[in-house]
Design a protein that fits this description.
- Helices cover 35% and strands 21% of the residues.
- It is α+β, with helices and mostly antiparallel strands and 371 residues long.
- The protein has 2 domains: 139 residues, Creatine Amidinohydrolase, Chain A, domain 1; 213 residues, Alpha-Beta Complex (Creatine Amidinohydrolase).
- Helix 5 links the parallel strand 5 and strand 6.
C-alpha cells in the first residue's frame, strides 16, 4: 500500500466518527489498515501501539521496542515513543491534539485498559470524554480496494495449492495433528507469513464439531475428513474448507455431501451487489432444511475475510447487511451429525458488479450422483 492509500483511509475515517473528534485505534488489523504499522500484539492486554487521529494530526504511539519499525512502516504518521507508563504518557498526547471526545474501539478495548485510561483522562484539563466508535473502521474494511483484492487473490491461490497437495498425501493411519503440521510446513515453504488461524483437521466423529482441534486420532477409510485452513500473505488471509473421504463413503455421508454442495452452489449463484446478507444465507439454509437436515446446520453461512480471518460482513440469518462490490466473503454451509460426522465446504468469493468471482481454486469436489 502507498502513502496516498493511508491518507485516503484516514480522511474517510474522519468523516464518520460517531460523535468523537479524535479516534483512538488499538486493534492490530485496524492499526495496519489505517497506517501500515504491521506489529502484532503479543497478548490481548499488551498493545504494540495506538493510533490517535483527528483533523489536527495523525500520531502513532508506541514504545521503544517498536519505534524504528513504526517509523519505517507508517510514514504518514508522527511516531511518538512512550518514555514512562502508557497511562502516564497517553493523556499528554491526547491533550496535544486538543481532543474533547475520544472515540475508542468498544469491541476490542479491555475493561482494565478502559478504566486506566478513562481515569487518567478525567484528570486532564479540560476533561476528555470516551465515546464508542461502533465499528467504524471495521465497516470501512468490509469493502476492499483493488490492491487488497489482489492480496487476497494471492493468499487464496497459495492455500488452494497447499490444500490440493495435502489432500493428495492423505492416507489411513496419519493423525489429524500430522495433517495439520503438514499444512503449516507447506505454508512456510510457500512463503506465507503464517496461517490465517490454527488449521482444523477433523475426521470421523470429530468432523461433527465445526471447530474441532486436531488430535492424535488416525484417519480411517470411508469416514469424512474436514480440512479447514488458510494462510496469511502480506497481512491478508485466506479461508478454505474441503471434506475428503479415503475410499467410498457411507451412503448417509454421500447424501449430506451432495446436499451441502447444492446449498453452496445455490448461494454462490445468487450473490450480487445490493442483495441482503440474510437472503444469501436463506438460499443455502433452505436447501439444507428442505432436505430434512435444517437442525444440523447451526452456524452462519459465511463471513468477510481480509486482514482478519473473520470480519464484516456476516452472511447469517439475522442482522442484514446490504452487499457491495468489493466485499470478500466465504460461503461455507455444513451438516453435522452428532457422534457420527459432518461435511463442510467453503469457498472464498469477491463480489463484483454482476455477481461474484471465486478466489479459492481447489477443484477437489465429489459428484456422488443421486446418493
Amino acid at each position: 500500500m502507498n502513502a496516498q492509500t493511508y491518507r485516503r483511509r484516514v480522511a474517510e475515517l474522519l468523516k464518520t466518527m460517531n460523535g468523537a473528534d479524535t479516534a483512538w485505534i488499538i486493534r492490530p488489523e485496524n492499526r495496519r489498515y489505517l497506517s501500515g504499522f504491521q506489529a502484532d500484539d503479543t497478548q490481548f492486554a499488551e498493545s504494540s501501539g495506538s493510533l490517535l487521529i483527528n483533523k489536527r494530526a495523525s500520531i502513532l504511539v508506541t514504545d521503544s521496542r517498536y519505534t524504528d519499525e513504526a517509523n519505517a512502516e507508517a510514514p504518514t504518521f508522527e511516531v511518538r515513543t512512550i518514555s514512562r507508563d502508557f497511562a502516564e504518557d497517553f493523556p499528554q498526547f491526547v491533550r496535544e491534539l486538543k481532543a474533547k471526545n475520544l472515540g475508542f474501539e468498544e469491541g476490542y478495548l479491555t475493561w482494565g485498559l478502559y478504566q486506566e485510561v478513562s481515569g487518567a483522562l478525567k484528570g486532564t484539563s479540560p476533561a476528555v470524554g470516551l465515546v464508542p466508535l461502533e465499528g467504524v473502521v471495521e465497516g470501512m474494511r468490509s469493502v476492499k480496494d483493488p490492491s487488497e483484492i489482489r492480496a487476497l487473490e494471492i493468499s487464496a491461490e497459495m492455500i488452494s495449492r497447499i490444500l490440493d497437495q495435502v489432500i493428495s498425501e492423505l492416507a489411513p493411519d496419519m493423525t489429524e495433528k500430522e495433517v495439520a503440521w503438514r499444512i503449516e510446513d507447506l505454508a512456510r515453504e510457500s512463503g506465507a507469513e503464517g496461517l490465517s488461524f490454527p488449521s482444523i483437521v477433523a475426521s470421523g466423529p470429530h468432523s461433527a464439531m465445526p471447530h474441532a482441534t486436531p488430535s492424535d486420532r488416525k484417519l480411517r477409510e470411508h469416514e469424512p475428513i474436514v480440512l479447514d485452513t488458510g494462510v496469511r500473505v502480506n497481512g491478508y488471509r485466506s479461508d478454505i474448507t474441503r471434506t475428503i473421504f479415503l475410499g467410498e463413503p457411507e451412503a448417509r455421508f454421500r447424501e449430506i455431501y451432495n446436499i451441502v454442495r447444492q446449498a453452496q452452489l445455490a448461494a454462490v449463484s445468487v450473490i450480487r451487489p445490493g442483495m441482503e446478507s440474510t437472503d444469501v444465507d436463506a438460499v443455502a439454509r433452505d436447501v439444507i432444511k428442505n432436505a430434512g437436515y435444517g437442525e444440523y446446520f447451526g452456524h452462519s453461512l459465511g463471513h468477510g475475510v481480509g486482514l482478519a480471518a473473520h470480519e464484516q460482513p456476516r452472511l447469517a440469518p439475522r442482522r442484514p447487511v446490504r452487499l457491495e462490490e468489493g466485499m470478500v466473503v466465504t460461503v461455507e454451509p455444513g451438516i453435522y451429525l452428532p457422534g457420527k460426522g459432518g461435511v463442510r465446504l467453503e469457498e472464498m468469493l469477491v463480489i463484483e458488479e454482476s455477481g461474484s468471482r471465486t478466489l479459492t481454486q481447489s477443484d477437489f469436489f465429489y459428484d456422488f450422483g443421486s446418493a
